[in-house]
Design a protein that fits this description.
Elements: H1 3-16, H2 24-31, H3 40-47, H4 67-70, E1 72-74, E2 79-81, E3 86-87, E4 93-94, H5 98-104, H6 109-112, E5 126-129, E6 132-135, E7 146-148, E8 154-156, E9 170-172, H7 192-202, E10 206-207, E11 215-217, H8 227-241, H9 245-248, E12 253-257, H10 268-273, H11 275-278, E13 282-285, E14 288-289, E15 308-309, H12 326-335, E16 343-348, H13 376-384, E17 390-393, H14 399-404, E18 406-410, H15 420-426, E19 430-433, E20 438-439, E21 453-454, H16 463-468, H17 472-488, H18 492-495, H19 507-520, H20 529-532, H21 534-540, H22 572-578
Parallel strand pairs: 9-10, 9-11, 11-12, 12-13, 13-15, 16-17, 16-18, 18-19, 19-21
Antiparallel strand pairs: 1-2, 3-4, 5-6, 7-8, 14-20
């Protein structure tokens, strides 16, 4: 049986059977707080069980009797959702092909039964069993956040959830676990759909009432070989079991896709067959190609104004050492060691598509993969490996230092989308963008020409003249704008601060702001958002009100790196260590609400920059 057939079979079995910002002292006291409970080893041993023992609570349920013994009842749909090892209408039957199921989801058989992080640590409303939340009776959802309210409607976190004032309302579909929590989270290299889901919760933007929703988020994992079958099954499942798609034929539905080629990662036959559904969905992807590229043979996969190009989830270490970090700049000033950008242009990384180094004398790559990077990296190296003031090399041991000491840095494509425009922006190096027909993250909503240099591919030989024509005044203005622009490109509220920011302008909030403007001005082209919406213009310029001191609030977001950015605010490492024994893992996956929550275990009490 193929992987796609396995997921469809498992899915069909399930379908049929199936706040207020705190003061400085708040975090200091939280760091010394420990909940008395079972020793860590014992707790992990219990989590490693195939299924948790039944909860000793009897409640009325819409599912078949016995569901809550090994499964979780989705009370809203009256479906029993099973862990990996069980199946059937009440999850009472042992899955006969468990080894195949585990392999399909990234586990060996032994790993499949061991402790693994659970999404949002089950919000303290269930047990984490081999990476899957076994919710207390009456609760359901991937993180046990849903239950019935006293008014007979579905509620979030027992009604303690406080929505953001005047914020968007986004409904999240609770899909069967074979589409969400069955995966080995440690092997998901781009789990941005889960990060987005977490922040919707802690930011106060999620609603459990589809009738009041502005948008509908489908949290399906598209970065897997199972994706084609999963996406097709999910859309059919939503159309069959929920009324929200039919309200506007899916036009306000959102899917995050993190593959290299965007929507074109899915089979062409499938895209054609499901075009009536796919074309209505807003796809949030990293791949902004919107016209054909003849060298790479890339076809348009992005629709400006309908889809949104979003930044890659960057986890590169060392960005907190950026010369744009106020703490780093202050230390350099005291030591009188200011960073000098003496070089003109820098790039280090893979040059040739076949991963072999270029020919030493000619600088040419083999003709094996001329499509790689659209041919851009190859041409830049061929023409400028020996250009004065340029450092273009296949590799370097001083990567971040080189970025910090050059004025301009190449931010090319790779096999598809790139991420170097984000990396170099955080280090204060003006990105040089070369890739005909490819939009950058949040372009055209954000005008990249204010802090980068875009060069047509045909002008690569003329690169020295183009960069030398950028005046010192223009270069200085671009470098100043980079500190704001970089914040839009990084998910700091989930991953921790880099530049002492508080997360109010991060990538997550920028997605939300674009969706807000799109809702309020549906007929305005995205490049004109700054002209028709004053709040959006100020947001993009990082010019909305911050703390009373006029800068980032120092009591909101922990920072990356070993040293505190602000005296009263812990580092992200301190946050993690302070409550590590009370979460189900050390990854962001189990960190309810993202790192903006620091050591707070209750997602309803996480700090918010926008209340």
């Amino acid at each position: 049986m193929s992987w796609v057939s396995s997921i469809l079979l498992a899915g069909l079995v399930l379908a049929v059977a199936s706040p207020e910002i705190r003061g400085k002292g708040y975090y200091s006291s939280r760091l010394n707080w420990r909940q008395r409970g079972r020793p860590l080893r014992r707790r992990l041993a219990e989590e490693a069980a195939v299924a948790a023992p039944p909860f000793p609570i009897a409640i009325n349920t819409s599912c078949l009797p016995g569901c809550n013994i090994k499964g979780v009842c989705n009370e809203e749909l009256a479906r029993c959702h099973c862990p990996r090892h069980f199946m059937g209408p009440s999850c009472s039957d042992v899955a006969p092909n468990i080894a195949e199921i585990c392999a399909n989801y990234g586990f060996t058989l032994s790993q499949c039964r061991k402790a693994s992080p659970c999404f949002n640590s089950c919000n303290q409303r269930g047990r984490c069993v081999a990476g899957i939340c076994h919710c207390q009776p009456g609760y359901w959802g991937m993180d046990c956040s849903l239950s019935w309210g006293p008014d007979g409607k579905v509620q979030l976190l027992e009604g303690k959830y406080v929505p953001r004032k005047d914020g968007l309302k986004i409904y999240v579909y609770e899909l069967p676990p074979n589409l969400t929590s069955w995966f080995n989270i440690r092997r998901l290299d781009r789990p941005l759909h889960l990060l987005f889901w977490q922040r919707l919760m802690s930011a106060g933007l999620r609603t459990a009432d589809g009738n009041e929703a502005d948008y509908y988020f489908i949290p399906v994992n598209t970065r897997t070989e199972l994706a084609p079958g999963m996406v097709e099954w999910t859309i059919s499942y939503i159309q069959t079991n929920y009324p929200w798609w039919s309200k506007d034929l899916g036009h306000r539905h959102l899917i995050i896709h993190t593959g290299d080629m965007g929507l074109h990662d899915l089979p062409s036959e499938m895209r054609v067959r499901l075009n009536s559904s796919f074309s209505n969905i807003t796809w949030m992807t990293h791949w902004g190609i919107h016209r054909y590229h003849p060298v790479a043979k890339w076809y348009p996969a992005h629709r400006p104004g309908k889809d949104v190009v979003i930044p890659v989830m960057v986890t590169t270490q060392g960005l907190h050492l950026s010369p744009m970090n106020p703490r780093v700049a202050a230390i350099a000033a005291r030591r009188k060691r200011h960073t000098q950008r003496t070089g003109t242009f820098f790039f280090a990384g893979r040059i040739c598509g076949d991963r072999k180094p270029p020919e030493e004398v000619t600088g040419a790559c083999s003709p094996t993969r001329p499509d790689y990077s659209g041919g851009v990296r190859q041409l830049v190296y061929l023409h400028h490996r020996n250009t004065t003031g340029f450092k273009v090399v296949p590799g370097t041991k001083t990567y971040l230092q080189d970025i910090s000491t050059h004025k301009f840095c190449l931010a090319p494509l790779g096999g598809g989308h790139g991420k170097r425009q984000i990396l170099v922006s955080f280090m204060g190096c003006v990105p040089v963008l070369i890739g005909d027909g490819v939009l950058q993250p949040f372009e055209p909503e954000i005008d990249w020409s204010k802090f980068s240099v875009s060069v047509p591919e045909k002008d690569i030989p003329d690169l020295p003249r183009i960069l030398n024509n950028v005046s010192s005044e223009t270069l200085e203005d671009m470098q100043k704008r980079l500190k704001c622009a970089a914040q839009h490109m990084f998910y700091s509220s989930s991953l921790g601060a880099i530049l002492g920011e508080d997360g109010r302008y991060d990538a997550f909030e920028t997605i939300i702001e674009i969706l807000r403007v799109r809702k309020e001005h549906p007929d305005v082209p995205p490049e004109n958002y700054v002209d028709v919406d004053e709040r959006f213009r100020k947001f993009i310029d990082c010019d909305l009100a911050s703390s009373s001191a006029g800068g980032p609030d120092p009591n909101v977001l922990c920072n990356q790196g070993p040293d505190r950015q602000y005296k009263g605010m812990p580092t992200c490492g301190e946050c993690q260590r302070s409550v590590a024994d009370q979460r189900t893992g050390g990854t962001f996956f189990s960190w309810a609400g993202g790192l903006v929550c620091c050591s707070e275990l209750d997602i309803t009490k996480c700090p918010r920059v926008w209340v």
